[in-house]
Design a protein that fits this description.
The complex is a heterodimer of chains A (113) and B (116).
Chain A lengths: L2 E5 L2 E4 L5 E8 L5 E7 L5 E9 L2 E4 L6 E6 L2 E6 L8 E8 L8 E2 L3 E5 L1
Parallel strand pairs in A: 2-11
Antiparallel strand pairs in A: 1-3, 3-8, 4-5, 4-9, 5-6, 7-8, 9-10, 9-11
Chain B lengths: L2 E3 L4 E5 L4 E3 L2 E3 L5 E7 L5 E7 L5 E3 L5 E5 L4 E6 L8 E10 L5 E5 L3 E6 L1
The chains are: A mainly beta (113), B mainly beta (116).
Chain lengths: 113, 116
């Protein structure tokens, strides 16, 4: 069975500090991968997606970047955090022929102070 | 442009009562429609989805939704709610990036509170 693991579960970081969030999917070969961001009490906004290793497409510009170093791994990062980066970050995966269904991880809660 | 409207930010019902959470979408093509649930401090879990066929789709935990094309709606229903159904419910529509992945567009969510 497929599993999706996000790390860390939560982070408290200072403004201006770097950030790296990770996501690993096991049990699926060549999944499409996504990063979503959810402001506190808000809806979800897609940030990035990737259909293959080394290829990442940006959907919105939030001074964040993403990379896919391995087929099963998706990394979200920035060199300098802003207060506006606070929120809940969700990784998701989908497969071709799955009626566009996305499956989400448990998320990482980020507080920028 | 694709969009999803959930007109009710908050719904409160008594345990055992029936439930309807409203969702309307705007999409020029054939929509893929979803309902997800988010329990406190957790990720999203898929409740059900519609992409073709019978407009009434069954999901987990007794939830169902009906796709009404003429009304551009995809309302979520449950005959009898339980206190454990308290959560935020998101309606979403899928927009393809052509052959390169897909994008889920979410509504703002409806917070369901079930009174014991």
């Amino acid at each position: 069975a497929q599993t999706i693991h996000q790390w860390p579960v939560a982070e408290i970081k200072a403004v201006g500090s770097p950030l790296s969030l990770g996501c690993t999917i096991k049990g699926k070969s060549s999944p499409n991968l996504y990063w979503y961001w959810q402001a506190t009490g808000g809806t979800l906004q897609q940030l990035f997606y990737s259909i293959t290793v080394g290829q990442v497409e940006s959907v919105v510009q939030l001074n964040l970047s993403a990379s896919r170093p391995k087929d099963d791994q998706f990394i979200l990062s920035t060199e300098k955090l802003l207060l506006s980066h606070s929120g809940f970050y969700l990784c998701a995966w989908s497969l071709w022929g799955s009626q566009n269904t996305l499956y989400f991880g448990a998320g990482t809660r980020l507080s920028v102070l | 442009a694709q969009s999803v409207t959930q007109p009710d930010a908050r719904v409160t019902v008594s345990e055992g009562a029936s439930l309807q959470l409203r969702c309307k979408y705007s999409y020029s093509g054939t929509p893929y429609l979803f309902w997800y649930v988010q329990y406190p401090r957790q990720g999203l879990q898929l409740l059900l989805k519609y992409y073709s066929g019978d407009p009434v789709v069954q999901g987990v935990n007794g939830f169902e939704a009906e796709f009404i094309k003429s009304n551009s709606s995809f309302h979520l229903r449950k005959a009898s709610v339980h206190w454990s159904d308290s959560a935020v419910y998101f309606c979403a529509v899928s927009a393809n990036y052509g052959s390169s992945g897909n994008k889920l567009i979410f509504g703002i969510g409806t917070l369901l509170s079930v009174k014991p």
